[in-house]
Amino acid sequence: MLKIFTGEDRVHANQEITAMLGPNYEIIEGADLVPTDLPSIFQGASLFAEKRNILIRDLSPNTPVFEKIPEYLNTPHNIIILELKLNKRSNVYKILKDQVEIKEFTMSKNSNFNLVFDIYHTAKKNGPKALKMLDKIKQDEDPIRFCGLLISQVLKDYSRNQGTKEKRVLHELSQLDLKLKSTSFEPWLLVQSFLLRLSSL
Questions:
Q1: 3-state secondary structure 22-81
Q2: Is the sign of the CA dihedral 28, 30, 36, 38 positive or negative?
Q3: For residue range 70-85, what is the model confidence (pLDDT) as tens digits?
Q4: Is 170 left (phi over 0), alpha (psi -120 to 50) or beta?
Q5: Could you give the angle at which helices 143-160 and 187-198 cross, rounded to 10 degrees?
Q6: Is residue 145 within 8 Å of 105, Cβ to Cβ?
Q7: Helix (H, G, I), strand (E, B) or coil at 107
């Protein structure tokens, strides 16, 4: 099974991912992959299970790897690729849309939508100021959804300039996304810690 989930509403996307893959699935960061990794992911066996449950996050900006996905549609494993946005004009999208389920998780716009982006751009230069801006919306915002919006901005930066800093920020943010779902820490404290570190990454 191969499915593609896309959209900024990562709260509902992650709920469906857990429903389909179970609570203990493998997570692979798309930005870290090279084409030669794909055979072991899509066709490789596991010592513990005949069928693997795998989530690949934010693969499409990694164009050389994403373009190879149509070669692995017959995977025996349960694999979901989670993307914030897909280029519907690309050749690989046109191939995939007729052969795999692509489900979109759109997020209703709210008054905080643009402010989240302002917080991210402020944090790149001034973490304490970004925290003051965050205080204004924390009561009405979900930390996981906030993180999803941050990821959308980081991916835009990464698509424009795939430099070392952009890759570091994307990796740190993916770790934040993971911690928000798997830790007992207060989620907003994790978000605040990331924003404070952002300018020095």
A1: CCCCEEEEHHHCCHHHHHHHHCCCCCCCCCCEEEEECCCCCHHHHCCHHHHCCCCCEEEE
A2: positive
A3: 999 999 999 999 998 8
A4: alpha
A5: 30
A6: no
A7: coil
